[in-house]
């Protein structure tokens, strides 16, 4: 929660982005939602099937809770590059996920980009560009994904 003390500065967008990736990599799903504003907008432009957008911290909390399941993918962010922009609220994070799928024992890597808008130390907007086909293929669900796209 941002401080109301005028002498206390909020974490920078770069710092918040780094914290997000660190917590994901550590599997700290219960700690992620607090990095987001209550009315956050998260968009998944490359998601082949809905949801393409989530609204609000509570919707994210539900999504993160599903990742606590023993068969949920284990994600580790590597090769992280966080880039500042000319907009002081906006950062772009480029990174690779090393993904381990406990259900199949498979491990793979995939490139990702997140564009985060951070205000008063909280993420207020996020555009997450992930390779959903790579995740579906590695999990043995590519046929299900294609069927969903066709239907």
Automatic annotation (TrEMBL):
Species of origin: Kitasatospora terrestris
Highest rank taxon of the organism: Bacteria
Protein name from the UniProt record: SnoaL-like domain-containing protein
Coiled coil: none
SnoaL-like domain mapped to chain residues: 19-125
Biological classification of the source: Bacteria, Bacillati, Actinomycetota, Actinomycetes, Kitasatosporales
């Amino acid at each position: 929660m941002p401080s109301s003390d005028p002498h206390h500065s909020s974490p920078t967008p770069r710092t918040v982005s780094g914290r997000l990736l660190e917590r994901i990599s550590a599997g700290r799903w219960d700690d992620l939602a607090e990095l987001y504003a209550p009315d956050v907008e998260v968009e998944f432009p490359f998601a082949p099937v809905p949801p393409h957008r989530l609204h609000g911290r509570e919707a994210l909390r539900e999504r993160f809770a599903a990742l606590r399941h023993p068969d949920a993918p284990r994600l580790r962010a590597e090769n992280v590059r966080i880039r500042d922009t000319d907009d002081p609220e906006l950062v772009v994070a480029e990174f690779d996920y090393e993904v381990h799928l406990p259900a199949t024992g498979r491990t793979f890597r995939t490139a990702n980009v997140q564009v985060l808008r951070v205000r008063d130390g909280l993420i207020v907007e996020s555009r997450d560009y992930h390779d959903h086909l790579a995740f579906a293929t590695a999990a043995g669900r590519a046929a299900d994904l294609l069927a969903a796209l066709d239907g």
